[in-house]
Amino acid sequence: MCGIVGYTGSNPALSRVIEGLRRLEYRGYDSAGVALALTKGEKLVVEKKAGKLANLEGALNGGHENATGGIGHTRWATHGGPTDINAHPHLDESGKLAVIHNGIIENYEELKAELERRGHKFKSETDTESVAHLLGEEFKASGDLATAMRSVCARLRGSFTLLAIQSDNPNLIVGARRNSPLVVGVGSGENFLASDVSAFISHTKKALELGQDQVVVVTPNEVVVTDLAGKTVTPKEYEITWDAKAAERGGFEHFMLKEIYEQPKAVADTLLGRFPTPSTIELKELENISGNFQRILILACGTAYHAGLIGKYALEEWAKIPVEVELASEFRYRNPVISEQTLVITISQSGETMDTLMALRHAKSLGAQTLSICNTMGSTIPRESDSVLYTHAGPEIAVASTKALLTQVIALDLLALYLASKRSSITSNRTKEIIDALLQLPNKIEEILETVEPLRAMTRGYKNATSVLFLGRHVGFPAALEGALKLKELAYMHAEGFAGGELKHGPIALIEEGTPVIAILPPAKSEIAEKMRSNVQEVRARGARVIAIADQSHSLDLPELIRIPESEEILQPILSIVPLQVFAYEMAVARGNDVDQPRNLAKSVTVE
Ligand code: F6R
C-alpha cells in the first residue's frame, strides 16, 4: 500500500532511494517517483513515472549522483488512476517542497477547496497534493519544515505516512505518521526513513519505532522525534535480526517460490525454544494476559483470516475454549458483545493491515484483552496489543502470503497447547504426542517440496480451465478456502472453496464435464474421511476432474493424486496447503502472470 523511502547522508541519495524502493515495490507498483535535493537553493529534481520501478529508472538514466538527500515512493493507487501526474512526489505551489504519502487523507476535498479559494492550482487527482500545498503554506508562515508538518498533521483526517523535502535545506527530511507505518534506520553519517526496514537493511540494522501522531526530523547525524504539540519524545530503538540476503531471491525465479521453499525453516523457527521438556510448553509472551477469559475472538483479513479459521479447531479441541473467527473489516462496523473476559487475537503478517488495526482498536475500546500474532517486529498491531506472539517466518516479500500463513497456524497451535496445559484440558501424554507431531512438521513439509515436480507438470495441464473448485471438511475446509484465494490472486482464475458437506446445497450445480476439483482428504481414520470420499465420488459422477490431496492412509484409485505425509488431523493444513500454494504458483507462471506482484494487489493493505 505505497512504499516510502527517505535518505539523507554523505552517500549518493538516488542509489540509496532506488535500492529502498526496489525492496518496497511489493507494497504497490502502480507508479514510482523520487524527489532529490541537490545543493541549497537549487531546484528539486523530481522524476515520476506510471508503472513499475523500472520505468522510473529508465527515465532517470543513472543521473543526479551528487544529490545527498532524497525521497522516493512506489504507489498503490487509491485517489486518481496510475498515471505520471498522479505519481508521487507532489509539489507545493512554490515548487520548492516535495511530499510523498502512504494512506488516505479523508478530508482532502475540503482542504483542496479551501486552498483553491486561496489561489492554489492543482495538477493531480490525488488526496496527497492537498497536503503538499498546505505544507507549503505553513512552511511559508513558520520558516520551519517540522513546525509546518505538525500544523498540517493536526488538520488531517485519515491515515498517513508523510515525508517532505525542501530545496533550501537539502539534507533535512521531515516525516510524520498516523495509522500507517514509518521506521527510521540509523546509520553512521547517514539516516533513513522507510515504510519498513527492508528498505535500508543492507546499510544499517539499527531501527527506531515511531509512535502514533509523531513527527520526525532527520539529518545525516541526527534524528529528532516530537509529538504533534512539538514535545520531544524518545523513540524505541531495536536491532533488526535478519539480513539483506533474507530479502533477496537467492537463485529462485520468484520470491513466492523462495518463500514456499523457506517454509520448513519458518515453521521450525516458530517452534524453536517453546518446549522446555518433551511434554511441556512455554509461552512467556502471554504473561500480560490474565487467564480468566471465557472466549476467544480472532480477527484478521485474507490469508491471515484463514489461519484463524484453522487455529479455531485446535483451540476448541485442545483448550476447550469457545472461539469465533471474524473478518476484521466486518467486525469494526457492528456492536459485538465483548468484555474483559474476551481474548481478542489479531493475526497479521505485516502488522499494519488497516482493517485489522481498526478492529483491534475497536476491541480494546470495548474492554477486550488483546493478543496479536504477527511477523513484523515493531509494527503497529503488536505495538498496540497487550501481548504479542511473533511468528518467525522472516521477511515475506511476495504479495501472496505463504510462509506467514503456516507460521500463523503454528502460533495458534502453540497457543492452543499452552492454554490446554494451563487449564489441564489435555493430559501430559497427549501434550507430548502433539509436541512430537509439531516437531515433525518441518521435515514433512520438506518431503512435500522434494516431490513437487509432478504436481507442477500436472498444474500446467489445467491452465485453460475457467474455474477451479476446492473441497475440504473440518480443517480441510479453511485449507480449501486458502487454496482458492491463492489461485484467484495469482492465476486470475475463478476459484472457490467449499465445505464438502455443503456441496449438495447448491455449489454442485457448478460442476460440468472437466471442471477441476481439488479435494483435500482428511486422514483415513478421521470420522469425516468416508464422507469426504463420498463427496469426491459425487463430483466425479458429474464429470469433474478430481485432484485429490491425501496421505498414505488412503488407498485411492484416482488418476491425479498428490500424496502428503501423515500427521495429526488438526495439523494437516500445515501440509495440505503446501501443494495448493505450488498449484497456484505454477498456474500463474503457466498463464504468464506476474507472480510476485499480481495485478491490483499490494502486500500491506494500509487503507480500509
Ligand atoms: C493473500 C494475502 C492477503 C493477506 C491480507 C492480510 O495471499 O497475502 O490476503 O493475508 O492482506 O495481511 P496481513 O497478514 O499483513 O495483515
Set down the secondary structure blueprint.
Blueprint: E1 3-9, H1 13-24, E2 31-37, E3 45-50, H2 53-60, E4 69-75, E5 90-91, E6 97-105, H3 108-117, H4 128-142, H5 145-155, E7 158-166, E8 173-178, E9 183-186, E10 190-194, E11 206-209, E12 214-219, E13 222-227, E14 236-239, H6 255-261, H7 263-271, E15 295-300, H8 302-319, E16 323-327, H9 328-331, E17 342-348, H10 354-365, E18 369-374, H11 380-383, E19 387-390, H12 403-422, H13 428-450, H14 453-460, E20 467-472, H15 476-491, E21 494-499, E22 516-520, H16 529-541, E23 545-550, E24 560-563, H17 573-590
Parallel strand pairs: 15-16, 15-17, 17-18, 18-19, 20-21, 20-22, 22-23, 23-24
Antiparallel strand pairs: 1-4, 1-10, 2-3, 2-4, 5-6, 6-7, 7-8, 8-12, 9-10, 9-11, 11-14, 12-13
The chain binds fructose -6-phosphate.
